[in-house]
Amino acid sequence: xxxxxxxxxxxxxxxxxxxxxxxxxxxxxxxxxxxxxxxxxxxxxxxxxxxxxxxxxxxxxxxxxxxxxxxxxxxxxxx
Length: 79
Known about the structure:
A five-stranded antiparallel beta sheet has the order 1-2-3-4-5, covered by helices on one side. Strand 2 and strand 3 form a beta hairpin. The chain has one domain (2-78). It is α+β, with helices and mostly antiparallel strands. Helix content is 32%, strand content 34%. It is globular.
């Protein structure tokens, strides 16, 4: 597990032994799993457990703003 970004009390993680499609896990009080390039190339929420709506909005915004960097990190970690 590699923490690749932190902001607004949230931690964005890529698991080293994870699977396609390229995605991140965002941890706060709960967890969200976000596909880095969903429909039309935009980030897409895959699942969320225990996150407030506000944290979920923040998580999606972070992934949208950092999408290029996160895709690059996914490629570095998973080849």
